[in-house]
Amino acid sequence: MKRKMNKKELKAVRLILGLQQQEFADILGVSKGHLSRTESNGKDSYDVSDKLDELVKYKLNAMEINVVEILELAKKRGMLK
Predict the structure, then answer these.
(1) SS3 of 5, please?
(2) Maximum Cα–Cα distance across the chain
(3) Half-sphere exposure in the Cβ direction for 58 (13 Å, CA)
(4) Using one digit for the tens of pLDDT, what is the confidence trace for 1-33?
(5) Which CATH number fits domain 7-76: 3.40.50.10860, 2.30.30.180, 1.25.40.10, 1.10.260.40?
């Protein structure tokens, strides 16, 4: 996947993998708070940074998880449009 993931896609990846925010944050090496603010849409939320996007793709690839397939599954389950 060449383009950067958005907030909904980031959250969908985590949910499809069956992970809580803390578990996903631990895998990525970021704080739960950072992940939470990135996934949310509130006034204090973050956009998905290039660094976080690359980190997610790198870690999933290292675990032999295909990001594109995960996102397609999320679409089939109605998590993404």
Answers:
(1) coil
(2) 35
(3) 9
(4) 889 999 999 999 999 999 999 999 999 999 999
(5) 1.10.260.40
Record the tokens describing residue 46, joined without a space.
């973050």
Region of 8 (left: φ > 0; alpha: ψ -120 to 50; beta: rest) is alpha
Look up the pTM and report it. Answer: 0.91
**Interatomic CA distance for residues 52 and 64, integer angstroms:** 18
Q: In terms of DSSP H, where are the helices of the chain? A: 7-16, 21-28, 32-39, 50-62, 67-76
What is the token pair recorded at 62?
Answer: 């290292």
- Give CA–CA dist 63/31, Å, rounded: 20
Q: Delimit the domains of the chain by residue range.
A: 7-76
- 73 is written with which tokens? 């599954």
